Each structure stands twice: as C-alpha cells, then as structure tokens.
Amino acid sequence: MAPKPKKHEILLDEMLATLSTLGELGETLSRPAAKKTRESLYSLRDEIAKAAAALDPVREPASWFDPADPYTAGRLVAVALLAQPRVPLDLISRSYGAGVYAIYYKGDHPAYAPISGTETPIYVGKADPSSGTASSPREQGQTLYGRLADHRKAIRIVEQWATGKNLTPPEYPLRIADFECRRLVTATNAQTYAESHLINLFEPVWNRETRICWGISMHGDTDGRNNARPPWHVLHRGVSWAMAEKRLDSRPLAQILDDISKHFNEKPGFASEEEIIDQFLKAFAQDPMIVSTSLADDDPNDAPHGTKKSGI
Length: 312
Description:
By secondary structure, the protein is an alpha+beta fold. It has helices at residues 7-25, 31-54, 70-82, 137-140, 143-162, 190-202, 231-235, 253-266, 273-284; strands spanning 87-88, 99-105, 123-127, 179-185.
C-alpha cells in the first residue's frame, strides 16, 4: 500500500497540474486573455521565490547592495546633487558638463505656495553629453548649462510679457528672481538613472511625468502640426509659439490649478534636506534578519560555509 501523500506534496502536485493546464490552453485563449494570463504568471515568479525562501532555515536578503547597479548609482548621484549649493537661476554662468539639475521656487505665486521656499524642486531634469563617449566636462559640451538657460529664458519671457499688464487672479506672473537651482556635473551616462530617481522621489509639478503642469521645456511644434497648448503655457502666458490663436488649451486653467492643488495635498513638499536624506537611506535598507529568540551556539548550521564545526 502506497504511503499517503503529505500536504505539501498534494499542494505541489495541484500547482504543477494547474500550470500544465494553463499551458495547454494555448490557442483557445483570445489575444487579450493570453496576454493577461501570461503577465499574471510572470508576476507569480516573485511569490514562488518567496515561498521557497520561507522553507529555508537560513534567511536570504530580499535585496543586496551593488555599487555597480545603475539604480544604486542613480540614487548616489541624486544624493550628490543635494550636496550642491542652491544658486539663483538668473546668475548661473556658462560652463562645460552634462548631468542633473533641480529648479526651486521661492516666490508668492499661490499655486506653488506649498513648495515655495522648501527643499522640493518645482522641476528636475538631466542634460545628456554632446558625445556618448565624452570623458571630461569639456568633451560633454555645455549641455547642462544649456538646459538651465532654456528654462531661465522661458521664465524671463513670461515675466517680461506680464510687465505693465494689469493681471488679475489667478494670472500671477512668474519672476526669474524667485527661482534657484542646483546642478551636478556627472560622468557620462550617470545622469539617466539619477533623473529617474529624482522624478520618482519629488514628483515635481512641472515635470511631464507628473502629467499636471508640464510644458516649460517645449520649444514649439514642427511645421504643419497644431498641437494643443501645454498646461504650463496655459497658466504662464507669454511665449510666442504657445500663444498662437490657432492653439487650444490642453486643459482649462481652472482644472490645471485644481490639479496642482490636489497634487500638493497628496504629495506635500520636503521641508528640510534631512527629510530627503532619510528617504534616500530607506531605499538602501535591508531586512535586519533577526529571530525572536537567540540561536544555540552548537547548531551545526551555524558553521561557516565550507568549514567543519569544531570545539573551542
């Protein structure tokens, strides 16, 4: 008489049978159903790995610190950006180098009151080098300065357009004197992952990725196209190509202001550098891997891998 299968054996057999059945469905599924099923199966890989790890009496870290990993490098570059001094955007000098930057607002525009004067940037970005093989700031060109100069120019144009006009709320003007920036020249290619990490951390309201008030970095459309006016240019008028009468607002002004308000309610700004550093450090934290009671010293599993346990 065959021994009765144990519970874990029954569960494994059922799981394997289910996977086999799913694999046999093949052409019977519609394309959307097949895609959804495939994605669901892929998502189970991490859960299976966790279940397998839970059966091992020796814990395995869920993550490990790899200085060479691009995402780790991106976080470190982002931290290095915070170490740079904040300087007036209107006073940056021409310079060589590519890298990352952050722009900060300290004015009295009501829409940006929640982050005015805080450590939360209103926009972050990167500047790629002129050459992908550049090995020095000079070889990278003036791309980082160029990006900041473009933003400075857009804000100056908006300020100049508003000068002398009797604007009424909510059409408050921007002033270049109310903007500061940080910039960090990096080794070629280090800027890409750093920008991504900065956007995910701060969710700056002017970045396209937040889908709220984007458009400051646009230079107009190619000939023959008639795209809608970006939200930034709806709220901050003055740039000639964006003011063309043929363009329609991408969203009503009232909705843009409401979107900005909701964004800051859900994503309050960082009041200090210490708060930001704390977020960076949490990203590097690993499972402390402790037990509820101390382990016995004579446990043979405690012997270093590849060595024999001996008496002291």
